[in-house]
Amino acid sequence: NNLRLIEDGRWGQHKMRLYPSQNAPFTVMFDSWKQHSRQLIEMEPDKARSAAAEIDAKVLSNRKPPYSLAGGLFDAMQDAGGDIYKVSNDELRFWKQRFAELEGIDIHDAPAVAVASLAMAVEEGAVRNDETIMLNITGGGEELAKSRQEVFYAQPHIVLDPALPTEDILDAVNKLF
């Protein structure tokens, strides 16, 4: 159970439903959830890379998310209820622009996916009028900041292919020290 602030300032117990989102076509959790499967659907590495390359919200493209493990997203969804949504790049871009128009600040692609999903949940009646919504919005104002000052990007010391053998990964990481 999660705590929710009630209008008179007291804390009460309320069950929170979850509505995670994925950017289509990279939708392994969405597809697995819709099949009511604890195990993630199988996706060939080349197909996964291709799907991940197509999406705007790159941070949502984890090929091995904490979905199936005990206490992972599948268990959380089973306990809390809710649904998983998928959002196209066009929908993401529409809601990214709409958020900027309504709130006066730019946001990153991943929260635009969340905003689009919330709009879908409201449209289909999954969200009740009396519910309190918590929506994590990241990257607010990055484009505004970039327009006002010079930005410096850190470069990684190493980039590794996740398909490398464990020993090769450990050797490469140890060479950093």
Written account of the structure:
The chain is mainly α and 177 residues long. It is 40% helix and 8% strand. It has 7 helices and 4 strands. The strands form 2 sheets. Strands 1-2 form a two-stranded antiparallel ribbon. β1 (2-5) and β2 form a beta hairpin. The longest helix has 15 residues, at 89-103. It is globular and about 55 Å long. 20% of the residues are buried.
Question: Which key phrases capture this entry?
Answer:
single chain; globular; disordered N terminus; 177 residues; 40% helix
Strand content: 5-15%
In terms of per-residue confidence, which ranges show pLDDT below 50 for 5 or more consecutive residues?
1-11
Order of helices and strands: EEEHHHEHHHH
Largest sheet: 2 strands, antiparallel
Q: Helix share of residues?
A: 40-55%
What's the alpha carbon Rg, rounded to whole Å?
Answer: 19 Å
* Count of individual helical segments: 7
Mean pLDDT: 88
Question: How many beta strands in the DSSP annotation?
Answer: 4
How far apart, in Å, are the first and last alpha carbons?
A: 43 Å
**Class inferred from helices and paired strands:** mainly alpha
Strand order, largest beta sheet: 1-2
Shape: globular
